[in-house]
Design brief:
Oligomer: single chain
Distance between the termini: 79 Å
Helix content: 25-40%
Length: about 300
Amino acid sequence: MPGRQPSPFPPLSWLRAFEAAGRHESFRAAAAELHLTPSAISHHVRALESRLGQPLFERTPNRVALTEEGRAYLARLSAGFAELAAAAEVFEPRDASRRLVIGAFPFLASEVLLPGLPALQAQLPGIGISVVSETALARLTDADPGRRVDAVVRYGTGRFPGCRARRLTAVELVPVAAPGYAGGRDPRVLVSEGPRIAVSGPFAGWQVWSEGAGVPLGSGAAEVLTVDNYQTAMRAAEQGVGIGLGIRPFVDAWIRQGRLSVLVNRPVPAGQSSYLVTPQHSQGRPDLGVLAAWLEGLFQPAG
């Protein structure tokens, strides 16, 4: 009996590991998403690379980055996973298609999207609309219909592997504080000397603003508080804890309401934009077109 020929199709576990690692460009983040260990992710990816005969990642001691071939492979693979998720919709109740789940980071969800939601509901009668504090791209193609979102609002450079992205508006940085916080003092000196509120993460927002606005941050300047999310940072600024770095146009709602004021009116481009990100297979959905137009209206800069 002739020997069984190996399948030309790599095991699904290898493909899932690579797809998650490629989206995050992190084995650790992929491991957390798939409930595996980083070493298991690394093993699956190396096995896939061996099967394909070429590296998919460039590895350094501190990070991994997709090769050009890896990026092209990820785009095709992510599209394939999106099609698999879409195929499952055939077996969902018919009413399930009459829903629209929008993901956004907490401040945007609670302070910008929810107050304006009645206008969107009026434009999409008969569709159940939900807003969730979730921006992970994996939720766009989640196999569980109860966890899946239809669109997420993200800011970035526009590169969202395996997804469709529609640019909504540019993003700018500007220092904000509680009304009257300066108390007659020079706002530039206040920002330079602190106290400033920082959000933890890889984006050095204060440094970007300082260089773009030409306002140096003194060597003795203090970041009095570091928080893990933007909403907490804005709440701290509102309560007079320090100076926050507002992201426009998202913070414009609080500026219009008088909850915050611009301390130094020198907005600096963040080098990013906000995007409506949807699955590859979402092309042609009229409700997503309505959603995009509604978001563009919400994000008009404050006068």
